[in-house]
Amino acid sequence: RRKMLKTFDEVLNKAKDYGPKKIAVASAGAEDVLKAVEAARKEGLADSILVGDKKEIIQIANKRGIDPTNYEIIDLPDKTEATRCAVELVRNKKASILMKGMIGTARLLKAILDKEIGLRTDRILSHVYTLQIKGYDRLLTMTDGGMSINPDLKQKSQIIQNAIYYAHSMGIEKPKVAVVAALELVNPDMPATIDAACLAKMSERGQIVGGIVDGPLGFDNAISKEAAKHKG
């Protein structure tokens, strides 16, 4: 049985158990990017392949006191070429993690979704982000942060399923999923509330597995017992 991870420190310690992974960084020429990969290297979490303008990467690394010889650097100054190269490294299993450097999200997604060199699977691509909030007794994960602009019911169910699988990897055996809407009751004039109710029923019937889905719920009563009691 996996231990539920409740803080980022616990997540980092657990990650170390798996040994260092290889990160492919798309367009790595930025101080914040290099500081992040250097911190990961020092913690024993990951080694990185830096793709981008080699001269710029070395210059920034030296400025920040980072030894560039600790990294494989692939010299591709063009951001599109650098992005495609980083994606291909993951596709060809030369790296296991793709990291966004100094590029726009649209450019990164275009490479990820490319039919020839991309990372497409039979599941929808969705985004999850995890927060550690002071005073809250566990990590809070939200999805989708903007990757799926206007998902339909089928896509929403796939987004939830992706998030449940992610929660399992964080040690949550039966994650509770709140489908958030502006109201807690189904309103025929608000399609989001209808979808939320359908998703909850799909979970009950085994069309979404591995978690407990409920909705529609407001964000406040989804995360706060006090708010839920106040609203009845």
From TrEMBL:
GO MF annotation list: acyltransferase activity
Lineage per the UniProt record: unclassified sequences, metagenomes, ecological metagenomes
Keywords on record: Acyltransferase, Transferase
Domain Phosphate acetyl/butaryl transferase, first and last residues per copy: 81-231
Species of the source: marine sediment metagenome
InterPro entries noted in UniProt: Phos_Acetyltrans/Butyryltrans, PTA_PTB
Keyword Protease carried by entry: no
Pfam families: PTA_PTB (PF01515)
Name of the protein described by the UniProt record: Phosphate acetyl/butaryl transferase domain-containing protein
